[in-house]
Amino acid sequence: MRSGRLLGTGLDGDAVQLAAAGLVRLTAEEWLGGAAGAPAWFSHVRAASFADTWLAFGETAAPGLRVPARAVVRSVARLAAELVLQARAYDDPATLEWLGRESAEARDRARRDDVSHPAEPAALALVWHGVQAAADDEDATAEGRESHDRRITERAEAYVRERHHRQDTLALLLACARIAATALQELSSGDRAEAARHLDELAGRHMPHTAPVPLWVPGRPDQAAA
């Protein structure tokens, strides 16, 4: 991992989306074929390290510095919602119903495993709101989009405990990234090359055409991962 500065790339407006795409890519490496010979959990360690390096967990963020984790939570939830919707042929009601079932099952697993503060049900709730936002985006006003983002933020803040801010925010980010990575696997029918192309396309939306490719984006298009 490199320094937590954006190195003057002029990406302040897109850095949040690039960070979200990077988290999903690193989380997906478990089945995309990451570091040769690495154990399955290594991709999650790399994703956590990436988040810890590039996101500001409650610290003041400024242009050229790390991006606010709260904004990246919204972006990863939105990205996961987009991928989940695509994997289900943009069937909004079916997708929302599936997310509801998954959330109920996640809560049941947490109770059985005696997990007192599980991230997965909360992440699924964020993605649920992200799907609603995506369904409304085409005709939404700026006020409507802000309302959806506010609901995602409020649900995220409800999960994050004051004395465990970094830990809970990171858990929520990684849970959302896992939902996105799983949807990506479904969307690409397990084809690693297709999944990689999709990830490159997601990151490419926010790549500047007149500035250097940011060094901190893992697996950036046409270049090896950092």
Question: Can you put this structure into words, describing what you see?
Answer:
It is a single chain. This protein has one domain. Helices cover 63% and strands 2% of the residues. It is built from 8 helices and 2 strands. The termini are close together.
Task: List descriptors.
globular, mainly alpha, disordered N terminus, 2 strands, 226 residues, 63% helix, two-stranded parallel sheet
Number of helices: 8
Strand content: under 5%
User: What is the arithmetic mean of pLDDT?
Assistant: 79
Uncertain runs are 1-11, 213-226
Main beta-sheet strand count, sense and barrel state: 2 strands, parallel
Determine Rg (CA atoms, Å): 17 Å
Report the span from N to C terminus.
7 Å
Fraction in helix: 55-70%
Structural class: mainly alpha
Largest beta sheet: what is the strand line-up?
1-2
Basic shape: globular
Query: H/E element string?
Result: HHEEHHHHHH
Detail the topology: elements first, then pairings.
Elements: H1 15-32, H2 42-54, E1 55-56, E2 67-68, H3 69-87, H4 92-112, H5 120-137, H6 142-159, H7 165-187, H8 192-204
Parallel strand pairs: 1-2
Helix pairs in contact: 1-2, 1-3, 1-7, 1-8, 3-5, 3-6, 3-7, 4-5, 5-6, 5-7
Summarize the structure.
This protein is mainly alpha-helical. It has eight helices and two strands; from the N terminus they run ααββαααααα.
